[in-house]
Amino acid sequence: ENILDRSRMAPKTPIKNEPVDLSKQKGCTPERNPMTPVKLIDRPQPDPWTPTANLKMLVSAASPDMRDREKKKELFRPIENSDQSDTPDSLQYDMIEDSMGDEFEKQRPSRKQKSLGLLCQKFLARYPSYPLSTEKTTISLDEVAAVLGVERRRIYDIVNVLESLQLVSRVAKNQYCWHGRHNLSQTLKVLQDVGELQYGELMTFLQHKEQDLEYRFRDQKKETLPDSQDSPLLDFSEPDCTSASANSRKDKSLRIMSQKFVMLFLVSKTKIVTLDIAAKILIEETQDTVDHSKFKSKVRRLYDIANVLTSLGLIKKVHVTEERGRKPAFKWIGPAEFPARTGNFSPSSNPLPGTQRGACANGKQKFSRHASFNFTQPCEGTRRKVNSEPSSPDLERPACVVNSDEHGCKMINLAAVCSQKVEEDNSSARNPSISSPLSHLPVPGDSDFCVTPLPQAVFPVVQTDVPSLSLPNSISGQALHPSTPALNKTENEKPALLPSQPFLCFPSSSVFMWCGSLQENNLKETLPTAGDVGNRSAEAQTAVPAAACQKRSSHQLTAASAPADEEEPASKKQNVEESDVPLSLVVPKKPFESPKAEATPGSVGTSAEHLEDFHPDLASPVAPEATDKECTKPLDSQKQEECSQNKGLGEPSQGEEHISKENGSQPFLPQYLYVQPTAGLSNFNFLFSANQAPGGISLAASPLPSVSVPCVMVPAAALASFPLFCSPAVISPLSSVPDGSFSAASSTNFSVSGLAPATPVLIGTTAVVTPKVSPTPSVDPQQPAQPALHLSPVFARSCAAVKLEPPVCGGHPVTLLKLQQPSSAPLTPKSIRPACHEAFFKTPGSLGDPVCWKKNEGNQTRSASSVQRRLEISSTSAD
DNA sequence: CGATCCCGCCACATT
DNA sequence: AATGTGGCGGGATCG
After folding, report:
1. Is strand C within 7 Å of residue A20 (CB)?
2. CA separation for the pair A799, A814 (Å, rounded)
3. How distant, in Å, are the alpha carbons of A181, A185, A423, A466, A847 from that of A384?
4. Helix axes A2-12, A89-107, angle to 10 degrees
5. Given Cys at both, which of A136, A258, A610, A619 links A590, Cβ 3.0 to 4.6 Å?
6. Is A633's CB less than 7 Å from nucleic acid strand C?
């Protein structure tokens, strides 16, 4: 509908403003956006511009009926149209169909045409979903409002929600910085973690019990908790800088509400949340009392938020049948589960940047940062962070604190929510593939990659967090980083930094093997998802994919139909978007993606590709990224010095096999190989094994020192839950050796040993990357904290993991935890930081030596290092 | 008639 | 005080 509407809308809406715009545009010519940095998307207002639109325009022009204003616009448009002809397909259809009837509508813009959702789509169309690193796009509220032809107030509605997801951040008065979706997965992860903390316990609890309980709870709810939720869940806001003063009203509402709303989805089993339940949960006070009016008001706001989220392709409207009848509800169709429940907490540390506006007003700094980070691809981002660390400004973002105690109440609600039955809006919606599969993907990588801009800096941390459960986190993080480091080298960034950090640096080309923690099963599931994504990407790039992904096909169709999708991601379609979303998810999985992304704009696709690796089909199709392929193969011959294994790799699929071979026993393991194309960076190749081994990873990771890759192998069991890790552990580059030591764990795929010699590798913990960046630090602290706070579950898990690990790193992990905990306890970011520092320093030695890394024995060292790093980072930043 | 949600008043925040 | 933000809810539309 929206689409159609849009087309229609275009004509009308703008009326007032448009003239202005037009004038501007004219000057510039179609692309005009000159003014706006954004430029990216011309299509922004595609609606009008579609070819069909043009026709309409012409027609209308011909007819006297047309309005004056319209005329103006139209006149201009035609010109523009020519340029933009490419505009979105959807529009076109509409246009065609409508063309005749439109006129009427034009005249009178229906409410729909003015809807916030549509407006949001237009808004999003203006900016690239995955902006290039270099670009930092600045958004001027006034300008956008004028261009879109709406009052500024409406723009606030959109921006506030986007900000809650960190798609944008406020830079200054009237100015926002567009970050795109690079960090989206990270943000979601954080929200999920936080949500779990707050609601999760109950949720899970409830879930088990099930609906019955739910209902009960609902009733109970009233009684139970007063929730103090008031305080922003995630406060992105920076506690520190800005005076607390700001808190007052701003923190609340839309931004926070949006985050909470998203959390409900992420925590909900069904991924479906009804408006009323959400409203009740979100109402600060006790639910019962809630006046009807208050409730109504809340619902209204939720509609506003839902419209934006829908435009983002994160949710869609559905109906749930409950006891009584059907109720409006929304279903989450965005990426789902990242790291997953297993190790959630970490995120909290970094919470989302979003809110923090006020904080220090460092607009400048932020700005710069953003610039640097944002766009760079994830990988770079991480790197930069490192570099940037010194800069420190980031601190602003200090971690967010999450307070989530009120869980109880919420939980109840959640439970209710969860329990809800969904009618399922439609068969299609359900595709498990989308939501669930994705979930599997761990995002660890993403976070790293994504790391985005400062504000987001947090994320990186988050990543770590995930793993936080046990060391694994760090590991995972590290894994990701490798690429970054490499980049750094190339770039010249400071090697020094790198060393400190947890990553591995490989000389330009190197091959990495990853072990996926995911279980086969999971993998499979994930794969599909990935596949989807991949497909999309592939399709976009090449037509190939389709076959492979049946699943998506339905969804894809749209995409397929419009080859251009890639280009237009944001522009319109949810469909596309949806796919996009998943993609993003995917990306996360593969830590490396980011690098690629850098190289290729279509980073998203790339990520998918990686995933695809698993599937032969996908992989090949993906090809589009010739680079990848090239990389892979070349790797064989070339790069992978170490990778004896890799040889086989030539192809990704093969790579898997190899891995498996090595692993031998492990059936699941070999998931895939990821080769990183050199594209942007130095050439890195990655091989992933999908196996679960995650557990191993975690530990292994910690041990950084010994780059020896071997580490990885943690018993999966523990980690299993976290897919992420794998990677970290992974990293071990080539693993020629296997395992010896660790592998014992079973999964061990790699033997890093080989690597060490071959190339200098730096292994960092995940944290590493971020280290310097202030934001991250904060995050780290949090992570630890969370666990502590929270809970047990995680904690326990972590412990378990640790136990498993013992052989390898055992102790270390634990240690880390402890350290973290302290920090966590305080909760407050600040407090945490200090702690971190201390901790950080303790271990430093290990970190510092590059050499150590390579060889290091020590898991311990590694772990410590990672931890330290984190700490450092925080500290540095703080400093 | 209930579900949506546009519109813009106006309070609070920031400059 | 002016201007930026954005809470909030009346009431118009939609279905």
Report:
1. no
2. 7
3. 18, 19, 47, 21, 18
4. 50
5. A610
6. no
Check whether A274 has a pLDDT greater than 60: yes
Nucleotide B2 C1' to residue A300 CA (A): 14
The answer to whether residue A158 sits within a structural domain is yes
Q: How many residues does chain A have?
A: 879
What does the pLDDT look like over A223-233, one tens digit per residue? 333 333 333 34
Give the closest nucleotide to A296 (alpha carbon vs C1'): C9
DSSP, collapsed to helix, strand or coil, labels residue A779 as helix
Query: Nearest CA to the C1' of C3 belongs to which residue?
Result: A173
A87 domain residue, yes or no: no
CA angle A703, A704, A708 (to 5 degrees): 90
| A267 found inside a domain | yes
Domain count, chain A: 1
* Distance C9 C1' – A349 CA (angstroms): 36
| pLDDT over 70, % of chain A | 18
Instruction: Identify nearest nucleotide to residue A141 by CA to C1′ distance.
Output: C4
Query: How does the average pLDDT of chain A come out, rounded?
Result: 43
Give the number of other CB atoms < 10 A from CB of residue A390: 15
Which pLDDT belongs to residue A89?
A: 35
pLDDT, tens digit (0-9, with 9 covering 90-100), for A161-214? 888 888 888 888 888 888 888 888 888 888 888 877 776 665 554 444 334 434
Q: How far is it, in rounded angstroms, from Cα A275 to Cα A330?
A: 7
Q: In the structure encoding, which two tokens stand for residue A194, read together?
A: 């936080």
Q: Which DSSP state fits A234?
A: B
Tell me the mean pLDDT in the region A776-784: 34
Helices H / strands E in chain A, number of each: 47, 8
Cα separation of A63 and A424, whole Å? Answer: 45
Tell which residue, A635, A670, A630, A675, has the closest CA to residue A652: A675
Token pair, residue A865, equals 């290092």
Q: What string of DSSP letters covers A71-128?
A: HHHHHHHHHHHHHHTT--HHHHHHHHHHHHHHHHHHHS--GGGG-HHHHHHHHHHTS-
Dump pLDDT digits (tens) for A482-538: 333 333 333 333 332 333 333 333 322 223 333 333 333 333 333 333 333 333 333
Highest mean pLDDT among A317-331, A781-795, A814-828, A858-872: A317-331
> In this model, does residue A707 exceed pLDDT 50?
no
Most confident of A286-295, A299-308, A613-622: A299-308
In 3D space, the residue among A96, A109, A118 whose CA is nearest the CA of residue A51 turns out to be A96
Helix (H) or strand (E) holding A772, with range, is none
CA distances from A430 to A189, A240, A424, A537 (A): 21, 43, 7, 22
Predicted confidence (pLDDT) per residue in A278-288, tens digit: 887 776 544 45
Three-state DSSP at A458 gives helix
Q: Is the pTM of this model over 0.70?
A: no
Spacing of A367 CA from C4 C1' in Å:
20
Residues 6+ apart with CB under 8 A from A11: A48, A53, A56, A57, A60, A70, A73, A74, A102, A106
Residue A141: CB less than 7 A from any atom in strand C: yes
Cβ < 7 Å from strand C, A residues 499-518: none
Nucleic strand C under 7 Å from the C-beta of A295: no
Choice between A281 and A64, residue whose per-residue pLDDT is larger:
A281
Note the pLDDT of residue A179. 87
CA A842 to each of CA A36, A689, A819, A870: distance values in angstroms, whole numbers, following the listed order: 48, 33, 11, 12
Give rounded-to-5 percent helix, strand, coil for chain A: 65, 5, 30
Q: Is residue A241 part of a domain?
A: no
Helix/strand/coil for A758: helix
Question: A79-116 b/e with 16+ CB inside 10 Å = b?
Answer: bbbebbebbbbbbbbbbeebbeebbebbeebeebbbbb
Structural contact between residues A17 and A143, judged by C-beta atoms closer than 8 angstroms: no
